Batch of 3 targets.
Target 1
Amino acid sequence: MIDPLVDIKENDIFELSPELLNTLLKDHTLSTDKCQVNIFWATDNYADRGKGYQYGDQITIEAITGSNGNVIVPRAIKSREQQQQRSREMAEVFTPSWICNKQNNLVDNAWFGREGVFNIEVDNHGSHSWVVNTKPVVFPEGKTWRDYINENRLEITCGEAPYLVSRYDTVTGEPIPVERRIGLLDRKLRIVGENTSTSTEWLKAAQAAYMSIYGYEWQGDNLVLAREALLYTFIDYYYAKFGKDPVLKSLQHIADIISWNLWQMDGLKGVIPNSCVKLPKLKNEPSSLFSLEDLGEQEELTLFDCPGCKNKDIHSHTGKYALIKDWKENKVLTFVSLLKQK
């Protein structure tokens, strides 16, 4: 079986398939048919490494493989100093798995109309855990297992995505066996396993489950970790069901879904982080707008702050609005188009 350790090695993914790792680094908002743009670091934690590791640099395969293959590691493995620095600068605080489980249970309690569907929470004198309900999940009248796996779920500011997948506790770093996992996607894949028999059936249903799971994150290294965790979760559950690893073609398809559904974004603005720019206008003609390329040709210009930033209006930013994919409708749209305008 592919190495299931908590700290997924980029070198291992690259050895399996450079194309696979390339897909996990892709930013679909900024990429075009002719040119791939990767997610960027969006953190100064790696700046002392030099060129290619600065805040605005794209995360390249070269920067995280080979002798640099241990650059990106989960928060639990980072030094205490790095953890504290990221908490101060980006308010990065990860949630223990037992709390993720508790909150995910609330979502499922509402959907199923009953408690204890997947597990029972346990509080043993302040030591929190859960007992897995091992019986096959029974669905309420009027709902099917396919309805459950197709239900959209979003983890905001997802970090390493502990609410979606729980290969390990993001606070302690302790690995969690497949049968005890509590993420929103973990639950969907458990349902897939209970209701399919063949590899073809499983793959089709698992792909649908992945298409219904979304998350966004500011910092590029966290996003890489989240995407990797979702990819290896796919491997974990397939192996648990069939006793072998999925073929590369299946991994590539899942990686493409993951790279669309977990994306880099400033959650308060709906744009690529730090992409808002000032708008140029001609004096005495405040309604005339020009592209940034025209600035050098215009005379008597004044610059105006991004109206979205100024007025705190998520629909009026000058930045690059993040794109996501609606798999059911097979169309690409901006994330903010899903939010109602006042």
Note: Residues 10-90 form one domain.
Target 2
Amino acid sequence: MERAGPFAVGMRAEAGGCLRIMDIRDDGRLLPCDLVSLSGMLRVCKMETVLLNADGPRAVIDSLVQGEALFCSAESAFPFRGRFTLPIDWCLFGFVHHTEESSWCHGISFSSGTAFTVLPEGTTEFRLSAGSRLSFVLLPLETLQRRYAELDRHHAGEPIHLPSLVRLSYTPAAQRLQAIYHDVRQRLIHGPPEGGGEAGIDIEALLDSHLTASLAATGADLPNCTRGRRKHYLILQRTEQYMRANLRNDIYVNEMCNAAGVSERALRYAFEDLLGISPNRYLSMLRLCTACRSLALSDVSRRSVKSVALSCGLWDLSRFADSYRRVFGELPHDTLMRSPPGDALSAP
């Protein structure tokens, strides 16, 4: 199997050709993982995650580099809010094997059996429930554009008519795509089937099947966002933007309401609808997760736990340490001591 291209640097391949970023215990439970490893799973960009409960992050991710494509299969045992921005020359497409009704992308609910396409056109924002399982492929945008032009010659070039979310129906094209993604997931988890040799995943067959099913989708196959859900999503966006801009300061509910331009009742409804927690609880988890990433990436010789905590608006250091240990299973100091030295932080 070819292992070259932009993803090859720094990878550690294991038996079966898969890179296991996180592993599974013998009893089948997902292992705890750190947010920095999780945020780097896309390789070409960072994915920011905010936990939505205090159970701690537990996940397993199997990935495989083949040529210029990165294949991933991921399963999360915790609910989280995520966001990422693809570089201008990359795209991502994949399939949701399983998720709950609380999951969404840009406020639009998506369910098990949904195919998704992400183009480099802004920040992708989503929420995934605990137990979500996805498979996806990251590859150069020009590869998608070329195959798209061959399938839809009326709209050669940018795949502007490609829907971002498609619920796969029972049409032959949709069923074929589901079968291909299921096979990709099994290969990433278990390796090639016995007697199947070392043949790689057929990226062209997967891409063609994904594009064919997406282009054949009807209005009934496209999830939509209700007016109420759209309103809640805009409230969440404005509030979170205010939180991030003022994270080092005390933030009160009335300030969030003013930033979102809504009443306290409307603010709480929006957060409960989209995240399942209150605005104050989300703010607390945002502070903790931001501190966790900062501690994991900071140079221990240049930053302290206190400076990181204060930069995230966590003034009570004793309470911060207790909350941090409850969520991440260790003290903030332990995370900081494991952080890479200054040279490693600046390395490509």
Note: The CA atoms of residues 34 and 230 lie 32 Å apart.
Target 3
Amino acid sequence: MAEPRAMTSTTHPSQMVQNPFQRFLIATEIDTRLLGMIGALAIIWVGFNFFSGGLFLTPRNLWNLSVQTASVAVMVTGMVLVIVTRNIDLSVGSILGVVGMVMGVMQTQILPVQLGLGLGHPLIWVLSLATGLAVGVGIGALQGTIIAYLRVPAFIVTLGGYLVWRGAAWWVTAGRTVAPMDSTFQLMGGGPTGAIGSFWSWVVAVVACAAIVVGIYFGRRQRQRFNFPLRPVWAEVSLAVIGCGATIAAVWVANAYPWPVRIAENFAEANGITVPEGGLFISHGIAIPVLIAVGVGVVMTFLATRTRFGRYVYAMGGNPEAAELAGINTRWVTVKIFMLMGALCAIAAAISTARLNAATNALGTLDELYVIAAAVIGGTSLAGGVGTIAGALLGAVVMQSLQSGMVLMGIDSPLQSIVVGIVLVFAVWLDTLYRRNKH
């Protein structure tokens, strides 16, 4: 028998493993928990497609699923950092509701009427969004300051915020629904006009694939620079192929979903286009809220993994006392985390309000539970110190897939809540087992 090779500083661990599948996982450095979630998502999709008579895995449903996931996906990227630092935020749904109501009032009353800009003014959506972001960051700063400097537990502060901000959302308009939203603002909600079309979707796909390849290349250069073990070239190529393949498949699905027949005919009539005998096929392409969610995910991933702030967050989650002794201003970092969470709630509020074309008192109801569940299902440990943005985004897709699939099957809302609750408890149990086995 051949003796196993001694491992040097530049030898990748995969070269010491004989099992092909294990070697692939080690060589590509794919997180096994992430792989498990992808497998679970595939089972959920195939199962719902079977029980719904083939309705789930259609371009229309998958496109709608992506849009419905967007607001929760935006908020879950911030919830990861909150939970990593051993805190919790139960107020995100209520913050979304009050910020959405503020943005709605800004667009329908304050800016066009009281300040005299007039309906349809190009600055209305910009000023409304800026005001919403300011309110969200302000609420986050207030809650973060109470948690960090007054030492009130995050659970209590955000539970109080859950009640306070939900009541404030009602108080802003005395319970009235505010509609309609500014036409430009509505683009953030999706729909035929809230998507970028086939051509620009393929442009996004090309840019994304180029970014994946360039990222892998420069990652390899960095490993060489610091004399770290290099992944085998075949593993790097595999990652590039998988990443680009998933991107192209997602864009293909988005482009396969056409505009509704009546809207396409109205568009053709307005632009003097002759409608073919089989009907006019105009692709939706990628929805704008999905682009926003993906953009937020990329920025938050960079923030969590490539900045000093991100390192401080994970250090605090791993050992708060050691982080403080190391000179990290843990109180100020905590305030910044909750300010960031408030800003992300404002972005999610813009998406939700634009999608409904109205600000309602029910906006964001139970979103806090879906956001926390998505983070935990995505591998974020409630014990702190562990969690990834990519995993949380995948968790958000899993949560929305469960909800969407149950709606297609006609399952009653109470039973949907039961299923979500069971899945959440199961995810926490798996996390407990995973951490126990690691130690």
Note: Residues 196-286 form one domain.
